[in-house]
Write a structure and sequence with these properties.
Elements (H helix, E strand, L loop, with lengths): L8 H28 L6 H21 L5 H7 L4 H20 L4 H23 L1 H8 L3 E6 L4 H10 L5 E7 L6 H7 L4 E4 L9 H9 L3 E4 H9 L9 H6 L7 H36 L5 E7 L5 E7 L23 H8 L8 H5 L4 E3 L6 H10 L12 E3 L1 H5 L6 H16 L3 H17 L5
Helix pairs in contact: 1-2, 1-5, 2-4, 2-5, 4-5, 7-10, 12-13
């Protein structure tokens, strides 16, 4: 799997495989019930209903974050999210079945098919941890570099990933590495060493010839966690790796996406903008909008526009990070932040070319001066225009400390490296889910 892709082949394979299983389960269940009742099933109708039910079930699973394997593995024992997703999809499909014109037997066949598909969805997702172990949906790592600083940092990163498991480790001089890795059930060997000069290259090449994947620590974190680990990469790793490209056609395509999305968003949100303006005036004293200086592309400052969500004296004692349950936030401001509505006025910044719809969030100059001194590669996030939403925003909540800012930067760097129109569209699609469910706000 290429590290340049943002949709992992294993996730895509699982999605398509599940799609085929759900579709087949619906068709088989529907036809079995039709035969049991002595009815002639309309093949075309059954296939159309199976496709619709499959789509509804998979949309429900996506909205419940169950295509995020970390979430799916954690949910498997209790199946809380799974049952909610299938329940919601079943209600939608059931109502659709009742509204479809036709005789009652045809509706009974559709209900039977839906029941079969839901049963398969429950069984497959409940067994996901075991499926992951057998099919390599779960990364099983044999770590080379035991005891090194690089290995310790890598273990810290892997601990955050719900579908990665370290099954064994060894020093750089290890012999018989292929056999040891196979015995532990590893499917990837990750090399995380402070100095590569002592590596047993012959053993590592033997592992590759034996069908095992061999990659270095930073590359594995980039692929598995979709971020660039700033504590593991060296400047040369960034300079000589793929990515960090900005051809003119890409810049033009991203600008077109930003302007089109801004126009559509403004037309859809116009009534909301008016309503929010009224609510802010009724809720607290002060202006409706809040203009704040931020650092944009190439380090140039600009005035970013937002709906005011804090009291007017929020920074009377100086600039502060936004905190969870921040007491400075107004009553209506809490809800505006939760559903990201406070960001809507930035449509104007997008039209002016100061921002894009997608990109790293622009930070305040006061924070940037501190962060660029303490976090390596921090300035690289200004290689592209800042955005209303971004890869870091959908992968991590608001940053409220230096350590959280470091974590978000790693996602921003991954975005800058893998910049593409398709990635922007994927982020926009995911942002819609974040907004609807109000996740990750402070």
């Amino acid at each position: 799997m290429s590290v340049r892709t943002y949709v992992e082949s294993r996730k895509l394979g699982f999605f398509v495989g599940e799609q085929l299983l759900l579709f087949a389960a619906f068709v088989v269940s529907a036809l079995a019930v039709a035969r049991g009742l002595g009815l002639n099933a309309d093949w075309f109708r059954v296939c159309i209903e199976a496709a619709c039910a499959t789509a509804a079930l998979q949309v429900g699973l996506y909205l419940a974050d169950l295509y995020d394997f970390k979430v799916a593995y954690q949910d498997a024992p209790r199946a809380t999210r799974l049952l909610k997703a299938i329940g919601a999809a079943t209600i939608v499909c059931g109502l659709g079945t009742l509204l479809i014109p036709g005789p009652s037997p045809a509706k009974a066949i559709a209900v039977a098919g839906l029941g079969g598909a839901c049963t398969v969805a429950l069984a497959l997702r409940a067994a996901l941890p075991e499926v992951g172990r057998v099919t390599a949906l779960r990364a099983r790592v044999f770590l080379i570099g035991q005891g090194s600083q690089a290995a310790l940092k890598l273990q810290h990163e892997i601990a955050r990933d719900g579908h990665t498991e370290i099954v064994g480790s060894a020093t750089i001089e290890t012999v018989g590495l292929a056999a040891r890795s196979r015995a532990r059930g590893a499917n990837v060997i990750v090399v995380a060493v402070d100095d590569r000069r002592g590596l047993n290259v012959r053993e590592l090449l033997a592992c590759r010839l034996a069908g095992l994947e061999v990659i270095d620590g930073p590359t594995f974190v980039e692929r598995a966690l979709k971020k660039i680990p700033v504590d593991l990469v060296k400047p040369g790793d960034l300079v000589f790796s793929d990515g960090f490209e900005r051809p003119m056609w890409l810049l033009a395509g991203r600008r077109l996406v930003s302007l089109t999305a801004s126009l559509v968003l403004f037309m859809l949100a116009a009534p909301v903008l008016l309503l929010v303006s009224i609510l802010i005036k009724l809720d607290s004293k002060g202006p409706v909008f809040y203009s704040q200086e931020r650092v944009g592309m190439s380090g140039r400052n600009f005035k970013m526009l937002k709906f005011r969500t804090m009291r007017t004296d929020a920074e009377a004692t100086g600039v502060k990070w936004a905190q969870k349950d921040d007491p400075r936030v107004t009553g209506i401001g809490k809800w505006l932040r939760r559903f990201r509505v406070d960001e809507l006025p930035q449509i104007l910044n997008v039209v002016k070319g100061e921002m894009g719809i997608v990109g790293p969030r622009p930070e305040r100059p006061e924070f940037v001066a501190k962060l660029r001194r303490q976090i390596p590669y921090y300035d690289l996030r200004t290689l592209v225009p800042p955005g209303i939403t971004g890869w870091a925003q959908i992968r991590y909540p608001y940053a409220a400390s230096l350590e959280e800012a470091r974590e978000k930067l790693q996602y921003d760097l991954w975005y800058v490296k893998h910049l593409s129109v398709r990635l922007d569209l994927a982020i926009l699609f995911h942002t819609a889910k974040v907004v609807v469910f109000g996740r990750g706000a402070r």
